[in-house]
Here is the input.
Amino acid sequence: MAREYRKGAVSSMEVTDGEPVGVIAAQSIGEPGTQMILRSFHRAGVASVTVTSGLPRLVEIVDAKKKPATPFTYIYLDEHSRKSFEKSLEIAKKINEVKTKDVARSIVESFSTGKIKITLSKQMLEVNEITAGSISSKISKMEGADASVEDSTTITVSVHTRNLKEIRAFAVKIGNLTVNGIDGAGRAVVNQEPGTNEFYVISADSNIDKILEVPGVDRSRIYTNDILAMYKTFGIEAARNAIAHELDKTLKEQGISVDMRHLLLLADAMTFTGKIKNVGRHGLSGEKNSVFARAAYEETVKHLVNAAAFGEVDNMSGVTESVLVGKQLSLGTGNVELAIRKQDMAKIGKKEKK
Amino acid sequence: MAKATSGKCYVYVNDRRVGYVSDGQKLASEVRAARRNGMLPNELNITYFKKINAVHVNTDFGRVRKPYIIVEEGKSKLTPEIAEKVKNGEIDFNTLIRNGVIEYLDAEEEENALVAFEEKDINEDTTHLEVDLAGIFGITINLSPFPEHNSLARHAMLANFIKQSEGMYATNFNTRFDSRAYVLFYPQKPIVTTSSYNYTAISSHPSGQNFIVALSTYYGYNMKDAIVLNKAAVDRGLGRSMFYKTYGDEERRYPGGQKDEFKIPPPTAEGYLGEHAYANLSEDGIIEPETKVYEGDIIIGKVSPPRFLEENLGARGLEERIRDASTYLKSGENGTVDEVIITELTGATKLVKIRIRSLRVPENGDKFASRHGQKGVVALIVPQEDMPFSETGVVPDLLLNPHSIPTRLTFGHLLEEIGGKTGAISGKVIDGTAFDKKGEERLDEYGRVLEEHGFDRNGDEVFYDGITGMKFKAKIFNGIAYYNRLYHMVSNKMQVRSRGPVQILTHQPTEGKARQGGLKFGEMERDVIVGYGASLLLKERLLDQSDKATVYVCKNCGNLGYYDYIKKVKVCPMCGGNNLDAVEMSYAFKLLLDEIKSMHIFPSIKMKA
Here is the structure.
């Protein structure tokens, strides 16, 4: 029976059966993407924090990179803190990640004595409200070394080993030790929402798991551009929304308008298995059903040999396979097939005669 | 680069650190003084970088350098007395360099210089003075008149067009055998010249003609970068050129004493094409001059020994087994045999060169460009009576779309047109060298001359429509601009294919003009058709009109089989069965299956019914 004809804006936008939405989405994102290449590198450097944008960012999202090149987190605060700059600053200080090398003037290792001398900057210590003692105790907790405070700006660490490489490695490790704030939270600064009197914190990294535990943080409004962090903390639905949102944001920044439905389709394709898959060899394209489709994309021999070893069957139903053998695609006009075959028609005719 | 510590100014010679001094600035000025009085070679350049407190000395090759007049204590070293001597030919340029009047700076040392454009701009900080302001552009860009009024992007394009223009590339072109040559019939010197025309041989070997150009549309025929030409002008020889192409062959010697031979191939030769194919050749197997030739015609008859020595020589001896190795005209080419030379290479190898000439009258699709990076393709050649004409009866040679000027910022084009018009009316050559005069001054000068001769000072004129005879409401700007004909011509590029040769390996159509190929229907084109959902159209492109093949597939084992026409039975060579079905598939897939099999993988085809 013919479907009932429905009028209205929504039904007129419905996609018909057999419409190749994936190809259309790919072209709709890809074509404006070609224009982006020229534009993205021509931004004059503003002194403030630079965030990856344009094509590099787009590639980052689609490739499902472990960590974005410039991660950041918007940390909104609860009603007690968001109106006060002082309170916001207090929270920012709790989050702000400070490493030994950030407060140290020099970290010098002596290979003959196996001692590492850390000279701290008095100014930096005051700014970050930490003391040599607290740093020393943090270092002492590390395995294989003892730290002692010489004076208010000097710490001596004696390493238990005489191995040159290990001493050097230990010095580097000390430099990267988080002595204050949240490990993996990055630099945190207070910002004001333009047009309102609400303050919030921006941090230059994405350890949102830990950030959420800080009292005073509004847990329902935190946002990061690190999609994997979103996935780990909030689950796949959040990751899907984050992908679509980040794509949309990146494209809009470049003055390119792509319909949200194309981006949502891409986000769905990347997340529908419950894990984030990238678009490429190790993700979407690499997990296609058809042997020929995979072999036509990358690593031809590997796929053919594996298919032979495991006796894979290719149904020859996708676009790539159909083009390869010269079959009509099962898309668009090729979506319909005869329901009854010729020989069966003859049988029906006979029955009617009887 | 190491961070300079206080007090130490490192010195690098050809990017290699050699030591340090306390005052780099002082070192640089001392070295410069020594260079100017001849103690150090003038090829040496020294730069002091204040920001990093380092001195770089360069003496190596490959640096771009430019001469400047030295200025010391606010005074140019090129005093009026010296300038007078140079003018009289008493002193030459090298003497000026040797005596510290002029020196060459490289790109790095220019960072330390403050160059004044003109003598009156010199102040106490000035270190150098430009020798000639037009020198900023360089010789090629200075071939364009008024380049200071054009956008830099157009200069880059101009530099390319100059290379591609047809002209009189050599006066002995008649005796040369260049593989490809284009010669313009009536090359002219430009009315608006520049200083570059004095310094180069281009004025004695011009590469263009002075066109009467009107800035007007013509029924949409000069949209975008299309141009409209006057038929009568074309018939009079406007933009007409000759295309010369040289074919050649030689009698090669092979190991075993065998040798090629120029002659009309005998009917016994392999690949003999029939008597009529060799009809144009004279007794020596080479075509006569002034013969008209068309594509595929044989111009050099040659026979070669067989490629492979076969065991079965048969009744005839080895000497008699020869093949046709004649040279024929490539597809899409035709013309007249211009000249034939027969000569010998070292080793007594006979060599033949044949030059074919063919006339290239401007036609739709040919490319022209002015000297302002304004290129265009002929879209229509209009009979003179249908062209717009001016009050005084002037009919333009070329109609340029006025939209092509403002967005490209090539105002030099307009200046050249007015200048050309002025020059033509007053019978003078106009100098359009960059920075010679200010734009307004030039406009005033040309406007005055034009008014003296009864023209509008801005170059506008009343025009009439050639078709209706009606006066145009607006005045039309016109003038004379120097146009180059570029060697990209449709007749050399046009190509078409409906049916034709296919590749042996894949059975797919060949690619490229020389092989009568088709245009590639690539992956992105495929995606477009897929996106539209026209799956049958796609199948037609990719299968029916490409490499369709009927293959027999064994229903039993899934291997490919064949049809035995003698026994009239289908055979599967794998299982020996006779139960096969004919399947339509792309030859490329059949090939893929074969190649997979060569990897010791057996792909079995299972059919639905």
Q: What stands out?
A: Chain A touches chain B at residues 18-20, 23-24, 26-27, 301, 304-305, 307-308, 313, 319, 323-335 (CB under 8 Å). Strands of chain A lie at 73-76, 98-99, 104-110, 115-120, 145-151, 154-159, 178-180, 188-192, 199-203, 223-224. Residues 78 and 216 of chain A are 5 Å apart (CA to CA). Confidence is low (pLDDT under 50) at residues 42-48 of chain A.
